[in-house]
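DATA SHEET
Item: assembly model
Revision: 1
Owner: S.N.
Input lines:
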Amino acid sequence: MRRIPALFAAALVTALVSTVNPVLSQAPASPPRPALVEDLVVANRILANEGVVDGYGHVSVRNPANANRYFLARAGAPALVTAADIVEYDLDSQPASGSGTGYTERFIHGEIYKARTDVTAVVHCHCLDVIPFAAANVPLRPMYHMGYFIGEGVPVFDIRTAAGISDMLVGTPALGQALARVLGRRSAALMRGHGAVVAADSLHVVVAKAYYLNVNARLQSEAMRLRGNGVTYLDPEEAKKAVQTYERSWEFWKSRLPR
Amino acid sequence: MRRIPALFAAALVTALVSTVNPVLSQAPASPPRPALVEDLVVANRILANEGVVDGYGHVSVRNPANANRYFLARAGAPALVTAADIVEYDLDSQPASGSGTGYTERFIHGEIYKARTDVTAVVHCHCLDVIPFAAANVPLRPMYHMGYFIGEGVPVFDIRTAAGISDMLVGTPALGQALARVLGRRSAALMRGHGAVVAADSLHVVVAKAYYLNVNARLQSEAMRLRGNGVTYLDPEEAKKAVQTYERSWEFWKSRLPR
Amino acid sequence: MRRIPALFAAALVTALVSTVNPVLSQAPASPPRPALVEDLVVANRILANEGVVDGYGHVSVRNPANANRYFLARAGAPALVTAADIVEYDLDSQPASGSGTGYTERFIHGEIYKARTDVTAVVHCHCLDVIPFAAANVPLRPMYHMGYFIGEGVPVFDIRTAAGISDMLVGTPALGQALARVLGRRSAALMRGHGAVVAADSLHVVVAKAYYLNVNARLQSEAMRLRGNGVTYLDPEEAKKAVQTYERSWEFWKSRLPR
Amino acid sequence: MRRIPALFAAALVTALVSTVNPVLSQAPASPPRPALVEDLVVANRILANEGVVDGYGHVSVRNPANANRYFLARAGAPALVTAADIVEYDLDSQPASGSGTGYTERFIHGEIYKARTDVTAVVHCHCLDVIPFAAANVPLRPMYHMGYFIGEGVPVFDIRTAAGISDMLVGTPALGQALARVLGRRSAALMRGHGAVVAADSLHVVVAKAYYLNVNARLQSEAMRLRGNGVTYLDPEEAKKAVQTYERSWEFWKSRLPR
């Protein structure tokens, strides 16, 4: 594995930073786990390679050793993230270890982890296929079993409700909280004029839900053109039963990454 | 050929398994033929590389030496299937040789082989382009000679009719039989909220029919947007005459596989 | 250039075949010109790589040394054509040199060369983007200067008019002549339920016209969705003035070929 | 960096040309800066690799050392541009250094630089996604924050107003001036039956605006199909606030270039 040296280096940096820079957080930083960090790097690259994110967007994972911390890359294009870019944040989205400028919208992650103890991983994307649905105010509906979680409903967060006229960015804790409230207990919420946020109980599942959220939107748009309001979606009870692990998708996408 | 050693290894494993594990089936397992297994591996990879399947979906081929057996990969992403993953099943979809967890929906294959002595190969896919047609209940029609087999009609299997509220999966012999009945004597059936199944008299043709089923759906959707119900499809008699071997498509797709 | 040995080999084979097999044609075969043959191989590969053809379709060029002959690959997928596959045909589409089974529809080429002394190169494709237009009977119109030649009009050839119920293939001289009559003096004609034929005065231009015929169809479909019959197309006089050589497209596409 | 020798060679050629060929311009040519030239080469390749241009289209940058000069490749496909192809032009679009045939439409660049002292970089593209909007006379509107600049309005330049029936090309200073007048103080203008022009205050931003102009058009077309005239666009004040540097997009696109 080419990246293992980088992973050990990152762990070392983390240990050093948490030693010499105690003011960054009140509790000592938890050393990142190389395998988890590596998986987070792969998640970043899959999202870029499969077109769920472009130069923008981000994915985080909660620290399994400390539920009050999460890992997220410092600000940069997801396709270019390496283990050395991963920063540990507390749930107020302040860095607990690592260095570099953070994403302006890291509060999306921290506030969802605060509100949702069941959530282990979060994606924010400018997912192209869902943006027209938010703009058109057409609810997403589950088209097939791979989009089963859409049966929970996909609410739309309009930042204007929380912030009035803004730069459209979820750049404060308060806006992160407002977004988390709209998301509620669901897997995904659209962000009007912006993109979407997706939450799940694992890194592999959150990547897949972000991916299939887009696929399902394309299928729904096509079905509505063929039949308008007469489309047959998954029955709500079918959607509840059709839970997916998506593990094969992860293996497939991982195998497609450029070397 | 890089894979020939793996093929011989697979044949050896098969021989060993069928010797030491006679309880797996009543008749001894037929040794897989390296060339056929290799073709099945190529079929898996073509379907993934051409976008007919993603991390999910599967393709099988009947054993030419024993019509009561078929070959299918153990559960895994089609793009990553190797000769060592190929398992021989009896028509009840119980493993006759090979090891590893089987696809939950392998009954699709076994039950179609039981019902259709003319069928030599089967594909199950979450073919994106046809899912809206099933959801919209718009019949597929043959748009051009490459989709000639659509002239036979493409029925829609709604699992709710056979199973009520379910997880959408054809995970039992009874559901496989229900699907086979809807397919009837035709080349393809859609599966509502799920995908499609395609059957043919050769591995090369089943891959091509799955591919062109999708292409034809895209063309039909586009034509219907231009002209609604006024589209001119292939005449049923033209569709019968326009039989294709698709052999050049197979050679083309094979040449495009990543090395 | 990796292919030059193959080109010389092809020339040699041609010379030998035309010596030992004089019954193939009445006049001696013209030796193919390596540079032209190489360009024809590149044309095949560009058409496949840019998605104008898939495993099917073909492109030919008239022999500049003998206007009664043209070069066309023997039957095979365009992406895989090499110099050794190029065959010389007379205008009755009988082989004058070279070997191998010919395309069933080679008469498309021969009959257009007979009818159109201004034509030097011909493409037949199952061009996906134009098939819905023929099926919907919506005339193609020039959307931008790269599709200028569409201003000449793009007639639709319905094989039923010439052959009644058929296998949809232009497999005889008479059908080739019927298609050539529908094409008339224009650059392109659609073939209902099948694809298109494109004719031009050079190999580079015929490839580009086949490519931009498709692009223009996509743009027109999109514009019609936005505005129905209120779309502004190129004025017929603008279309006449906007003649393109497309030479930069050829260089671009050639640079994109897989090595 | 593989190209640095070429860059130094280009600087040398420039110096020689500006010495031996003083009649090309009244003032001595400014030596191009290797880093800027290299960025311009990258801009050309990104535009091609991301599908904003094909074999046609061009991108220029104003000389930061001399506001009366700009750099633009000599006529050729953007994907194939190298540092040696970069030519320096004065604002009348006459070459000040470098050699080779210029783009017929280089006046687009010179006349916009003349009219807009705030503009540092210009793209002309046959951007496929916006051509239907010009043809349908449907105004582009900002769909999400990445397309914020569309909030300024995107006027349509109809060359017929300035030139009557033409070959559609902006091939004279007068036509360049007419286009610059339609563009006004905005970021982008569509060109009916042709493509678009985009202007910005940096090379990275102009590439990104050309890219997101297309993305936004696709999203708008999709939203209008879902909801016609009921789509919610960015509020004009939101659009003003949502300014982007797009720097991460540039890094992402650069990393995707073929080596």
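QC remark: The interface with chain A takes residues 142-146, 215, 218-220, 222-223, 225-227, 230-235, 237-238, 241-243, 246, 248-253, 255-256 of chain D (CB under 8 Å).
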